[in-house]
Amino acid sequence: MGKQEAPVKPDVCTAESCKKTSARFGFCNDHFEEFKFGLVKKDGKKAADYEKKLEQFILFKKKSAQKVA
Ligand SMILES: [Zn+2]
Question: How would you write the pLDDT of the chain (69 residues) with one tens digit per residue?
């Protein structure tokens, strides 16, 4: 045990192909919401049922946007 695969900088969002600054738990604000919803895993990779969850996530966001109006 010498080499560990963790070259990700702690101050950048963990999510794949995201270069935003991390705000919470190593994610930027957008990806933290996705992480909370289970779309993105702790290691920044998409969940297996990402597309299914993404639909629910979009619906959820629409609903909460309507509540404000
Ligand atoms: Zn991000």
Answer: 566 766 555 589 999 899 999 999 999 999 999 999 999 999 999 999 999 999 999 999 999 888 765
Q: How far is CA 42 from CA 38, 62, 64, in A?
A: 9, 25, 25
Owner of token pair 């702790």:
42
Q: Evaluate if pTM is beyond 0.90.
A: no
CA atoms within 13 A of residue 24's CA, in its CB half-sphere? 8
Backbone angles phi, psi at 21, to 5 degrees: -75, 140
Q: Which residues surround ligand 1, an ion (CB under 5 A)?
A: 13, 15, 18, 20, 28, 31
